[in-house]
Amino acid sequence: MSKIVTRIPPSPTGHLHIGTARTALFNYLFARHNGGSVVFRSEDTDRTRSKKEFEDEIIADLSWLGLSWDSFSRQSERTDRYRELLEKVVQEGKAYVSTEPKKDDPSVSIEVVRLRNPGTSVVFTDLVRGEITFDTAELGDFVIARSMTDALYHFAVVVDDMDAEVSHIIRGEDHISNTPRQILIQEALGAERPAYVHLPLILDEKRAKLSKRHGATSVMEYRDEGILPEALVNFFALLGWNPGDDREDFSLSQLVEVFSLDGIQKSGAVWNREKLLSVNQRWMRKLSDDAFITRGDLVANNQERLRKAVPLLRERARTFAEAREMLSGELSCLFTEPAVDRVRLLAKEPPERPGMTILALESLCEPLKALPEDVSPEMVKEALMPFADAEELKGKGGRGAVLWPLRFALSGQERSPDPFTLISILGSFETISRIRKAIAILRK
Ligand code: GLU
């Protein structure tokens, strides 16, 4: 096979769409797997909608995903080349300048360039879908340029693909109907026909085309939500492709190694958010404690406790947004002393033994003092359980009569991690101080 060249041709008219990113990934994987190259092309022919900010953002987001390319071009900078080839096809009689009334104002006449369409059937092979036939007669002599200096999109694309020697056009199924037009233009230009692969559409769970209504459709939104690029890449790869077995965990470099067009499916690929979250959680769990904090942009007023809270976050959070929410919500007591409510503190006190909560909390201070500052939840449990059990032996209230006020004194919350975990993160010094404050509240 001659050299493989694929293309990543986004239109900079909005944020990087997840469908565009998935297509870019497949182009990248196919080229890299086969030792080929990738061309990046900014398709900015729509001058009113294209924006440099979107182009920059798309490039940043694709790079964030780990994708790279070997050359870069912008359609707006290639108008001379398009004119040169428009003149050529007109000279050769394959296209012609047509003077006709303007569509929205028939009193004005304009000159457009139309392709002389032989009107035959165009047959092409899609490497995934097989042979596809289009009757092109009804396309008529379609317009390929608004003027000699203003080539339309299809003409520009064909010229660009030809000049970049693109060997494989891998793109979304929504572009399949562009293919016959583009093939007719290729034939007029005498360009070689690349191979085509049309990827299945991305569908929502009801098997409708994925739309904004369904949830986030841009890569940026997922990044902001705290989805790791490794996870998005892993998830994108499985949207319409599978390795032929039941493996599900793939890094970008592993994908480069195993990717092949054989694994691409024809039917629509369903965007399953639950699956994305579980893939993300798997990638989050692979991170070291420090990487978890930096990559998740996690901040707290106590770095030491933040570090100790990572195992909790790793176990519970499926995105970094969730982790950040936990830090300011149910785990905020690790960083800010809670306001403790007397009534809640006494919620489990057996009515027949008033004052036992104070005694129970006091009894914990001695064993807590004996603990080292840096201690595991298991060690805390081992040191404190005999005191909770001693209460249970007295028959009334059970362990909860000790563990509830302990947990509540430390967290001030109905829901929080268990007291042993809280103590292991807070350290015995802070723990004892919070217990003393709770006792003072009870004595009031
Ligand atoms: N610029 C088009 C898009 O962003 C790509 C068209 C193509 O791959 O031919 O959808």
Any key phrases for this structure?
444 residues; alpha/beta; Rossmann fold; Arc Repressor Mutant, subunit A; four-stranded antiparallel sheet; three-stranded parallel sheet; 45% helix; 14% strand; elongated; binds glutamic acid
Q: Secondary-structure blueprint of this entry?
A:
Blueprint: E1 5-8, H1 18-33, E2 37-42, H2 52-64, E3 71-74, H3 79-91, E4 95-101, E5 109-115, E6 121-126, E7 130-135, E8 143-147, E9 150-151, H4 153-163, E10 168-172, H5 179-189, E11 195-199, E12 202-203, H6 219-224, H7 229-237, H8 252-258, E13 269-270, H9 273-285, H10 289-295, H11 303-316, H12 320-328, H13 342-345, H14 356-369, H15 377-393, H16 400-411, H17 419-426, H18 428-443
Parallel strand pairs: 1-2, 2-3, 10-11, 12-13
Antiparallel strand pairs: 4-5, 5-8, 6-7, 8-9
Helix pairs in contact: 1-8, 4-5, 7-9, 10-11, 14-15, 14-16, 14-18, 15-16, 15-17, 16-17
The protein binds glutamic acid.
